[in-house]
Amino acid sequence: MTKELQLKGEIRILTGQLSASYGNIKRLVEENKRLTEEIRDLKFTTAQEYMEDQEITVSDLEHLRDPQ
Fold this sequence. Notes:
Shape: rod-shaped
Oligomer: single chain
Strand content: under 5%
Helix content: over 70%
Number of helices: 2
Distance between the termini: 75 Å
Number of strands: 0
Largest sheet: none
Radius of gyration: 26 Å
Order of helices and strands: HH
C-alpha cells in the first residue's frame, strides 16, 4: 500500500469519527434543551403548588419586588 492510499484511508476513518462525534454532540444539545425545559416547567409547577398550598398570593409578594 502506498503512503497516499494509507493517508486516504486514515482521512476516511477520521472523517467518520468526526461525523459520529458531531452527531453525538447534536443529540446531546437537543437532550439538554429538552431537560432544561422540563426543569423550568417543574420549578414553575413546584413553586405554583407551594404558593397554593401555603395560600400565598401574588399580592403577598409584591413587597419583594425591586423598586425601579
